[in-house]
Amino acid sequence: MNEQTNAVPAWEQRFRAARVSLPDWADEAPDRALYVSNATGTYEVYAWDRSTDEHRRVTDRPNGTTDAELSPDGQWIWWFDDTDGDEFGVWRRQPFAGGPDEEAVPGVPAAYSAGLALGHDGTVVVGTSTDDEGTTLYLRRPGAAGPEVVYRHAEYGGVGDLSHDGTLLAVDHTEHGDAMHSAIRVLRLADGAALAELDEVTGRDEPRGVACLGFAPVDGDPRLLVAHQRTGRWEPMLWDVEAGTETELVLRDEQGRPFPGDLSAQWRPDARSLLIEHEYEARSELFSYDLDTAELTRLDTPRGTVAGATARPDGTVEFLWSSAAEPSAVRSTSGAVVLRAPGPVPPGSVPVEDVWVDGPGGRVHALVQRPAGEGPHPTVFEVHGGPTHHDSDSFAAGPAAWLDHGFAVVRVNYRGSTGYGQAWTDALTERVGLIELEDIGAVRDWAVASGLADPDRLVLSGGSWGGYLTLLGLGTQPDYWTLGLAAVPVGDYLAAYEDEMEALKSLDRTLFGGTPEEVPERWRASSPLTHVERVKAPVYISAGVNDPRCPIRQVDNYVRRLEELGKVHEVYRYDAGHGSLVVDERIKQLRLEIDFVRRHLAPGTVR
Predict the structure, then answer these.
(1) CA distances, 174 to each of 38, 195, 493, 518 (Å)
(2) Residue 318 CB coordination number (10 Å)
(3) For residue 417, which of 280, 576, 246, 271 has the smallest C-alpha distance?
(4) Looking at the DSSP assignment, which residues form a beta bridge with residue 33?
(5) pTM, rounded to two decimals
(6) C-alpha closest to that of 71 among 145, 147, 142, 175
(7) Which one of 115, 154, 190, 374 has the largest count of C-beta atoms within 10 Å of its C-beta?
(8) DSSP code of 534?
C-alpha cells in the first residue's frame, strides 16, 4: 500500500485502532472485570460491569498504566503507580464503581514490583524488589494496622500465589543464584514457617526450573499447580504441599505422542479440571483436562496465537487471539466475540510463512512475510526481545508497517527463544548475544541465497534485547547489514549492569556465569561498545530517559563513542521508560525510523 496525502495510511490506522487485553474477572463477582485499552490514545485500565455492559476508565496518566488487578470480591481495583514509566512505585486502589485512589498498603515502600496476591479473606501479599535489599515480600493480615515482612533475600524472587483460604503462600525464588531456573517455597502464614520446598537446581548437574501456576481455588485444598522442566520442556504437575506428593500429568496429543514445545495450565473454577495451553513453533492451542478421568479435550481455536485465556464459571473459555494477518479480539469457545475494541477494525496484513534454516546449534525457525511484487526485496530483520521470549504468528502493527512500505519482514526465533524446548532456551549462556547472532546470520544467508532479500538493502532492527542484538550485530557482523534500528537497547553492557534494576542484574549474572569482575572477558566480548569501531552501517537509536531495564547512561556512552569515531547515526530520546504506552509517541517513533531508512537506503526503496 502507498501512503496517501489526504488519508491516514494503513500502517498508522493499525497503531491508532483501539485494542483491548483479555479481561480479568473477580473470582466472587464474575460480572466484574478489568482490561487494558488504548481507546483514548494511551494504554489505560478499564473497569467493565458485564451485567450492564458499562465500561469505565480507571486510570488516566500521561504515560499510561497497564498493571492492575481486581480483588476477589470485585470491590476494589488495584493498580501500580510508577513515575513516567520508571517501574518504581507503589500499589494504589480505587472502588470498582469509581472514587478516589488511595495507597493500597501504607507502610510498603516504593520499589520495583515483585508480584501481588489478594486473598479471599482480605490477606494481601505485596512483593518488592530494590537494589539495596533484593526481594522483600510484605504480608498484611486482615484487620492488621500495617504490613509485616514474611520473606527477604538478596537474590530475585516474587509472589507465587496465596492459597484460597489465605493460610499458605507460595514464593518463586532464585536463592540458589540461577535466575533462569526458579525454585518454589511454600510458607505457612500462621507462623511464617517454611512448609515445603521444590528446588530442581541445587545440587543438580542439569538444572530444571519450576514455576508456581496457582493454588486450587477451594478452601482447605493444599494442591499447588506447578510448571516443571523434568522432561526438557515446560509441563504441568500437581504438588500437594502438605502431603509432599507430586502428580505429574501425562498429556498426549491425538496420536498418543508427547506434546512438543511447552505446556502451561491454570485451574478451572471447579478445581476438578484444568485449562491447558500448548505453545509450539510460534503458535498456540487450548485444551481442557479432566483430573478425574485424565481426559484431554481440544478446544476450538483458530490457527494462530492465543495471547491469554481464562476459564469462566459457566464452563466457557475466553481467549485473546490473533494471527499475523488478522487483528486481535477476545473470543469465547461458545463462538462469540466477547469483547471488541470500539471504533474501526484495523486493516489486516500478510500471513507468515514458516522457514527452517540449518544453524550452528540446530534448525532455526523463522517467520517470513513478503510484500507484493517480485524479489529480491529490501528486508527488515525484526529481532525479538526477552531474550527468553519468541516471535509468534500474531498481529503486530510494526512488521505490518514495513510490509506496507515494500519491505519483506523476517523474524528469527534464535537460541534463547521459548517454545522449542529447554535445551534451545538454555543454550543462551556465556557467549551472550553472539549465539543469537549466529542464528540470525544463518537465516540472513538463507534470505539472500533464496532470492527473498536484497543483500544491499538489509535492515537489522529490534527493541530491548532485540535492540541490544542490533547494536552488537552491527559491530560483529558489519558486512551483513546495511542499516540498524535499535530501540531501548543495551550499548555498553558493563554500564548497563551497574544501572539496571536488580531483577535484570540477577539474570545477567546467570547468563554470563558471573559478574563483570568475575568473568570480564565474557562481558567485554558481548558488549556492543567493544565492537563499535567496526560498525559500517548508519544506525538509528531511540531510548527512554526513565528506562530501568536498558538505562540511558549506557546508551549515551555508546552514542558518545559513535560520535568520536564519526559514525553515521541519529538518536531520539523521549520522556518515558522501556517503551511508550502513548499511541502518538509510538507512531512518531516509527515515522522517524521510516524517514531514517528512506534517507539512507537506495532512492526509491521505501514506498
Answers:
(1) 35, 18, 23, 20
(2) 21
(3) 280
(4) 25, 48
(5) 0.96
(6) 142
(7) 115
(8) G
pLDDT of 473 > 50? The answer is yes
- DSSP classification of residue 384: -
Look-up: residue for cell 502507498?
2
Residue 236's CB is within 10 A of a number of other CB atoms, namely 22
Q: Where are the beta strands (DSSP E) in 362-429?
A: 362-369, 377-383, 408-413
Which runs of E-coded beta strand occur in 520-588? 539-544, 569-574
112 DSSP assignment = E
Dihedral, 145, 47, 286, 327 alpha carbons, nearest 10 = -140
Mean pLDDT of the residues in the chain: 95
3-state secondary structure of 206: coil
Cis? peptide before 387, omega within 30° of 0 = yes
Is residue 2 predicted with pLDDT exceeding 50? no
Read off φ and ψ for residue 466, nearest 5 degrees: -65, -35
**Closest to 402 (Cα-Cα) out of 443, 440, 374, 370:** 370
Backbone angles phi, psi at 205, to 5 degrees: -70, -40
CA 607 to chain centre: 32
CB 391 within 8 A of CB 413: yes
Whole-angstrom Cα distance, residue 297 to residue 30? 24
Task: Check: CB of residue 37 under 8 Å from CB of residue 44.
Answer: yes
Nearest to 556 by CA among 104, 501, 544, 568: 544
Calculate the CA dihedral of residues 173, 175, 180, 185 and round it to 10 degrees. Answer: -30
Contact 443, 410 (CB under 8 A): yes
Burial (0-12, 13-18, 19+ Cβ within 10 Å), 227: buried
- Residue 5 pLDDT class (50, 70, 90 cuts): very low
Predicted pLDDT at 28: 96
Q: Which residues contact 409 (CB under 8 A, 6 or more apart)?
A: 368, 369, 379, 380, 382, 399, 402, 403
Query: What cell does 233 get?
Result: 520442556
Q: Which residue stretches of 60-103 are H helix?
A: none
Amino acid at 237: M
d(CA 31, CA 47): 11
- How many CA atoms does the CB half-sphere of 208 hold within 13 Å? 16
C-alpha cell at 567: 559514525
Amino acid at 90: V
Q: Are 460 and 485 in contact (CB under 8 A)?
A: yes
3-class secondary structure, 136: strand
Grid cell, residue 340, equals 471488541
Q: Of all residues in the chain, what percent are helix, strand and coil, respectively (each to 5)?
A: 20, 35, 45
Pairing of strands 377-383, 408-413: parallel
Phi, psi of 47 (to 5 degrees): -95, 145
What interhelical angle do 434-449 and 465-476 show, nearest 10?
70
pLDDT at 186 (0 to 100): 98
What stretch of H or E contains 289?
A: strand 283-290
Contact 35, 24 (CB under 8 A): yes
Asked whether the beta carbons of 85 and 578 are under 8 A apart, the reply is: yes
For 242-267, what is each residue's pLDDT tens digit? 999 999 999 999 899 999 999 999 99
Smallest Cα–Cα separation from 151: which of 122, 131, 180, 174?
A: 174
Lowest mean pLDDT among 158-162, 297-301, 344-348: 344-348
Q: Which three cell numbers stand for residue 9?
A: 495510511
- Respond yes or no on whether the N-terminal peptide bond of residue 376 is cis (omega within 30° of 0): yes
Residue 436, Cα to own-chain centre: how many angstroms?
18
